[in-house]
Amino acid sequence: MDHGKTTLVDAMLRQSGVFRENQQVSERVLDRNELERERGITILAKNTAVVYRGHTINIVDTPGHADFSGEVERILSMVDGALLVVDAAEGPMPQTRYVLRKALEQHLRPIVFINKVDRAEADPAAALDGVIDLFIALGAGEDQLEFPVVYGSGRTGVATLTQGESGQDLRPLFETVLEAVPGPHALQGPLQMLVSSLDYDDYLGRIALGRIHRGALELGQTVAMMHRDGTQTQGKVAKLFVFRGLERVAVERAEAGQIVALSGLADVFVGETIADLMEPEALPGLVVDEPTLTMTFRVNDSPFSGREGRYVTSRHLRDRLWRELERNVALRVEETDSPDAFVVAGRGELHLSILLETMRREGFELAVSRPEVILRGAGDAIEEPYEELVIDVPEAHVGAVMEGVGRRRGELVDMGATAGEGRRLVFRIPSRGLIGYRGEFLTSTKGYGTMHHVLLGYGPAGPPPPRRNRGSLVASETGEATSYALDQLADRGAFFITPQTPVYRGQVVGEHTREKDLDLNVCKRKHVTNVRNATAEEAIRLQPARILSLEDALEFLADDELLEVTPQNLRLRKAVLDAEERHKIIKARQKAAEAQG
Ligand SMILES: Nc1nc2c(ncn2[C@@H]2O[C@H](COP(=O)(O)OP(=O)(O)OP(=O)(O)O)[C@@H](O)[C@H]2O)c(=O)[nH]1
Ligand SMILES: [Mg+2]
Prior knowledge:
Blueprint: H1 5-15, H2 34-39, E1 46-52, E2 55-61, H3 69-75, E3 83-87, H4 94-105, E4 111-115, H5 124-137, H6 142-145, E5 149-153, E6 158-160, H7 171-180, E7 192-201, E8 205-214, E9 216-218, E10 222-226, E11 232-236, E12 239-244, E13 247-250, E14 253-255, E15 259-263, E16 273-276, E17 293-298, H8 314-325, E18 332-335, E19 341-346, H9 349-362, E20 366-369, E21 372-373, E22 383-394, H10 398-407, E23 411-417, E24 422-430, H11 431-434, H12 437-444, E25 450-460, E26 472-475, E27 479-480, H13 483-488, E28 493-495, E29 502-503, E30 507-512, E31 518-520, H14 534-539, H15 550-556, E32 561-565, E33 570-574, H16 579-596
Helix pairs in contact: 10-12
Bound molecules: guanosine-5'-triphosphate and magnesium ion.
């Protein structure tokens, strides 16, 4: 993650002459969707191709963040080699281990690219040592250990084979790719192609993308689509493309080994095989790790529902979620007893929050529950997912991090130095403990720390981690928040709303300073005696409101709360809006607990 993959692809595209001279090209040109550009991360894997010395090199840029690792699994069947990009200052990170394991499992022989050697803190030798350790830890064989190493900088567009030398351009990298990556084996026989990706085009409709594994494909050919459920349908290839730089080029025919995009097949999904009509033979589907986190997506039934969204019904929600399954391979969606609620399972908070963010931008309005980790097994043998957590912090904040992670049942596995003047702490921590930690981490390290984590696997479940130690401030009246009320109540906690925000009864408007929830009236107006004093109302100086991002809000959610997500607003609320009813439920629960204990 952040090790510079997309930037390196930019440089490869530029140097192979894909961009015309003087053409204005944005940085990280492949990170083209809106959320990718805003957040500066890659979310979806993308294909491109460059021509170097007469050879076409297909490149698939993958996301580095662990939550999008389904994207890595999705494209592995498309590639013959892997370029493992490692930041020369940071060394391998948890996600590096994950992608390397995946690559080795596929019997790929990775090329290691020690990147960002231009950084002042760069320590290429140490980074390489880290990579070698990783190969050994993953049980790489003798031959796999003899991986080629290239040093360089994607940003400045240089590479060398000798550490410490400053390169001229990326030629050494291109040459290494040609040498180390086997060309495609052009298997003869009846057509087979695994669909690795889907795209949509206003004119062409659904576009299926993948590599032809065997045989050839022709424009106008009728092919079989072999679906995951064992059924088979047929369709005609309407358009056929190969990749050239940032463009798709229409062709009439393509052969085994080539990565193609084709339209005309309206009901094909990722992981399914496109095959010869006469001799259809399915390829093994994608191997995808199981999700670890679930959230319930439900129809928004708050008093404000339908005000801001275009798509609000359970039908809309259902269609959208099923459409997402066609390409988001690491996602699972299940129906529930209620037609208005769906259980959505994914790889992590970011995996699910990006889906939510995408949906709200499309005009959806919905409510979601607190993210829950998926447990496995039954009785005494219950297991929960654990993650490796790597934290880099300045010395001064080590104590706070150890304390916070320890409280969440994280165990310190290793402690070392970072390239700068900090410490690298490696923990093993239950995924459950990690939920909601990010906010605390940023506060306790004053923004000077970085954290990365990746799933290690399932292990025996421990006691549930501690819950949020502060309650919610809950609006007791529906109306408009006033600065008068917010000012009067300022000592009760931190508010998430500003004056004039419309609120409803049961909405969570802030965080209490104490452990319990507190109902309060944020709409109260100052008693007007004789002259109405409008300016006095405005003159109040309030503490600035704490504006929660989508991820902040998801982390904040308690068991009995929901997050209302609309194109314009994020509102936290109690699932049961009525205060009396809510208190009755709490009492009944306490009684039941006392009777048990
Ligand atoms: N100093 C330096 N910074 C670089 C270099 N390459 C990339 N960066 C910076 O590193 C950050 C991440 O770059 P990206 O190319 O988006 O990294 P990525 O590996 O594609 O990240 P993800 O796709 O989110 O995993 C950006 O701020 C880049 O400007 C480099 O060679 N040297
Ligand atoms: Mg990227």
